[in-house]
Amino acid sequence: MVKFRKVRMDFWMDPMVSEEMTPEDRYFYLYLLTNQRSTQIGIYQITKKQMAFDMGYSIESVHSLMERFITHHQLIRYNPETRELAIKNWGENNFDKGGKPMMDCIGSELKTVKDASLIQYVSELILKKDIRSLYESFGKTEEVNFSKDVNDQDENLTDQTLDWKEIDDTLTNQHTIRGQEEEREEEREEEKQQEVFYPQMESIPDRDDTLHNNQKLVDVKEIIEFWDNNGFGFSNMNGKEQLLAWLNDSSFLQPKEVILKAMNIACANNKRRLNYVMGILKNWENESLLTVADIDSHYQNQKSIPKHRQSQETVPGGRPIPGRFKLDITAGEEE
Predict the structure, then answer these.
(1) Helix (H/G/I), strand (E/B), else coil: 273
(2) CB 179 within 8 A of CB 173
(3) Distance between CA atoms of residues 94 and 28, nearest Å
(4) Cβ pair 176, 81 in contact under 8 A
(5) Please, which residues have CB within 8 angstroms of residue 254's CB and are 6 or more apart in sequence?
(6) CB-based contacts of 77, cutoff 8 Å, min separation 6
(7) Which of 168, 149, 170 has the alpha carbon at shortest distance from 83?
(8) DSSP letter (8 states) at residue 247
(9) Total Cβ atoms within 10 A of residue 58
(10) Contact, 132 vs 122, CB < 8 A?
(11) Binning pLDDT at 50, 70 and 90, where does residue 320 land?
(12) Smaller CB count within 10 Å for the chain: N or C?
């Protein structure tokens, strides 16, 4: 059994990795490529719980990362029924060598894959023809049956436009009950997260405060999503709590908008840290800049004030003049 995984040196030069991925994205991507459940074929079984345990993240954070890699980066597919994950460009980066031992290993691992559509998904970027043919031989028969089941629901669906969530609903196997239990576990975990982040959101019946609380929920959600999606740290729960406290414990008239503006400034300066954002908020509060309009006007006024020119440079001092020296401007002139 292989005890190591290969990561190419140009991984860090990939434009998607260097420009589009957050630090959490890169960490997650390396984890997907090298974790102990990864296989030689780029398709393996793993649960979100296991990912969270290995990486030290919450299940909510792993779920968000999975969504980003499936829908935004489009680098993986995941079947929640069979718990199988496929890495799109695995074959492009890992099959630079062939030979019978490699082919035998690939063949034995392909036999264990339950969702044959994942085999076809990975095979599309395999450059070596013999290995790609081997993938296609394992995915072909089951793929026809799979497509037939989908076409029974909607004849107009194609492999390219198929919604993977709909596919998951058509799959039934021995893992379904366990899958439902894990989904419920994830929901319970999300509820725990909400209890941490939304302590101030308890509903008050028979009062207009309910509408106000609903708006607070929306504000909290926007701030957390911005935090998670812009590299401030998925697992930094304490940091999120401290930042959310500014919604209630500040003098800002537009707390959500002001917090988001401070976070945008932190991103623009590549300072994705809680202390940096808190410093911005404290400065604005001390200067009584309580709305986004106040802040924008303040910075606009600063730009319009011309910078004072520096005072003229002084001539460097020479040797000190003796105290008894007297200046005689006629000295040395001829009579």
Answers:
(1) coil
(2) no
(3) 18
(4) yes
(5) 290, 291, 292
(6) 70, 85, 86, 88, 118, 121, 164
(7) 168
(8) G
(9) 18
(10) no
(11) low
(12) C
pLDDT at residue 317, as a whole number: 55
Radius of gyration of the chain (CA): 31
3-state secondary structure of 128: coil
Q: Where are the alpha helices (DSSP H) in 269-319?
A: 274-286, 292-304
Q: Which range scores top for mean pLDDT: 16-30, 157-171, 244-258, 317-331?
A: 16-30
Residue 264 parent element (H or E): helix 255-268
The residue with tokens 């410093």 is: 279
Kindly report, residue by residue over 162-180, the tens digit of the pLDDT: 344 443 444 444 444 555 5
Read off the amino acid at residue 160: Q
Q: What is the pLDDT of residues 252-280, one digit of tens each?
A: 988 999 999 999 999 999 889 899 999 99
CA atoms within 13 Å, Cβ hemisphere of 207: 8
Is the separation of the CB atoms in 236 and 197 below 8 Å? no
Name which of 7, 217, 184, 3 is nearest 80 in CA terms.
Answer: 184
Mind listing the pLDDT tens digit for each residue in 124-154?
888 888 888 889 888 764 443 433 443 444 4
* 112 C-beta neighbours (distance < 10 Å), count: 12
Using alpha carbons, select from 313, 265, 305, 310 the residue that is nearest to residue 289: 265
* Structure tokens that stand for 321 in this block: 């003049």
At CA 274, angle to CA 252 and CA 242, rounded to 5?
60
Q: Which structure tokens are listed for 156?
A: 């107009």
Q: Which amino acid is at 321?
A: I
**195 by DSSP, 3-state: which?**
helix
- Per-residue burial over 297-319, b if 16 or more Cβ lie within 10 Å, else e, is eeeeeeeeeeeeeeeeeeeeeee
What is the C-alpha separation between 333 and 319, in angstroms, rounded? 25
Across the beta sheet with 76-79, what order do the strands follow? 43-45, 84-87, 76-79
> Given a cut of 90, is residue 325 above it in pLDDT?
no
Say if pTM beats, i.e. exceeds, 0.70.
Answer: no
